């Protein structure tokens, strides 16, 4: 089935229509009271950096932003004020990540060939990461950026090491994760029906028994998870201004 879709996509005269769903409807429990998607990073809110990455990337035709109900008006205003004209919809997410992804998928244009799911809390994804992951997904149907684990990894219980885990096959996976439109819709809908709580969308596709290709991630593509990540984000932006990154 996937093979057939792939061949059909290749036959299309146009480059794949690509939509991005940016999920920003979380409650930022690990941020010690900071509303991370609206927190300032450099001169701009985190979410504006995130949306700009996709606005600037010629591969993307449309952006759907998923937000919390209490931020709907503010996020819609921000998209207008910053002239983020690829944003076609701003919609309300749900309690679990999967609910938010589903809410976004429902608003994606029906003729999209590829859909990228990206964390609103990843504001600094380099263009090269976006380009490569879209290109690979167009070839294989599913791709995600990742970086190899470099620390030694231990499995521990109650503060005591039980074993050293072989890290040679371990990767930390990032977003955007890009999929053929039919595949990601089917995978996330099934995860929701099954009540699966997933931390990323590759997980939903893996559960269908499908393979996801890894592409080159970036250490700059941090996820703002704790307040310390805002300090890291500022340092990355400053290094970019100095031309060091
Ligand atoms: N129900 C949810 C949960 C998460 N997200 C989004 O998924 C991304 C990655 O999630 P995470 O970093 O865990 O964000 P939060 O869920 O907000 O953080 P926490 O787990 O600390 O509460 C974020 O952009 C977040 O807004 C979402 O849209 N809807
Ligand atoms: C999707 C993700 O960013 C990939 O690394 C990550 O799994 C999100 O995890 P979180 O627990 O919701 O922060």
From TrEMBL:
Site entry: Positions MEP for the nucleophilic attack: 167, 223
Entry's family note: Belongs to the IspD/TarI cytidylyltransferase family. IspD subfamily.
Site (Transition state stabilizer): 30, 36
Gene3D superfamilies reported in the protein's UniProt record: Spore Coat Polysaccharide Biosynthesis Protein SpsA, Chain A
Stated role: Catalyzes the formation of 4-diphosphocytidyl-2-C-methyl-D-erythritol from CTP and 2-C-methyl-D-erythritol 4-phosphate (MEP).
Enzyme Commission code(s) on record: 2.7.7.60
Protein's gene: ispD
Protein name: 2-C-methyl-D-erythritol 4-phosphate cytidylyltransferase
Annotated pathway: Isoprenoid biosynthesis; isopentenyl diphosphate biosynthesis via DXP pathway; isopentenyl diphosphate from 1-deoxy-D-xylulose 5-phosphate: step 2/6
InterPro entries with a match to the protein in the record: IspD, IspD/TarI, IspD/TarI_cytidylyltransf_bact, Nucleotide-diphossugar_trans
Gene Ontology BP annotations: isopentenyl diphosphate biosynthetic process, methylerythritol 4-phosphate pathway
A matching Pfam family: IspD
Single GO term (MF): 2-C-methyl-D-erythritol 4-phosphate cytidylyltransferase activity
Catalytic activity, reaction form: 2-C-methyl-D-erythritol 4-phosphate + CTP + H(+) = 4-CDP-2-C-methyl-D-erythritol + diphosphate
Keyword annotations from UniProtKB, A to Z: Isoprene biosynthesis, Nucleotidyltransferase, Transferase
């Amino acid at each position: 089935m996937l093979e057939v879709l792939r061949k059909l996509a290749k036959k299309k005269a146009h480059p794949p229509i690509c939509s991005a769903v940016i999920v920003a409807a979380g409650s930022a429990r690990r941020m010690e009271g900071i509303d991370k998607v609206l927190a300032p990073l450099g001169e701009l809110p985190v979410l504006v950096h995130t949306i700009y990455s996709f606005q600037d990337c010629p591969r993307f035709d449309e952006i759907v932003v998923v937000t919390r109900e209490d931020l709907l008006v503010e996020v819609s205003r921000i998209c207008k004020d910053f002239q983020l004209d690829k944003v076609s919809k701003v919609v309300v997410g749900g309690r679990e990540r999967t609910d938010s992804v589903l809410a976004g998928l429902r608003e994606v244009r029906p003729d999209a060939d590829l859909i990228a799911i990206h964390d609103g809390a990843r504001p600094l994804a380099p263009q090269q990461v976006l380009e490569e992951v879209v290109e690979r997904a167009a070839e294989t149907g599913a791709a995600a950026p990742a970086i190899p684990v470099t620390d030694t990894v231990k499995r521990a219980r109650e503060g005591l090491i039980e074993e050293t885990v072989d890290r040679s096959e371990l990767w930390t996976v990032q977003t955007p994760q890009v999929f053929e439109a039919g595949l990601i819709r089917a995978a996330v809908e099934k995860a929701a029906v099954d009540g699966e709580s997933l931390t990323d969308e590759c997980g939903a596709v893996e559960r269908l028994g499908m393979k996801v290709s890894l592409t080159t991630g970036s250490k700059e593509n941090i996820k703002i998870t704790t307040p310390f990540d805002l300090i890291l984000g500022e340092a990355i932006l400053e290094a970019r201004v100095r031309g060091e990154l």
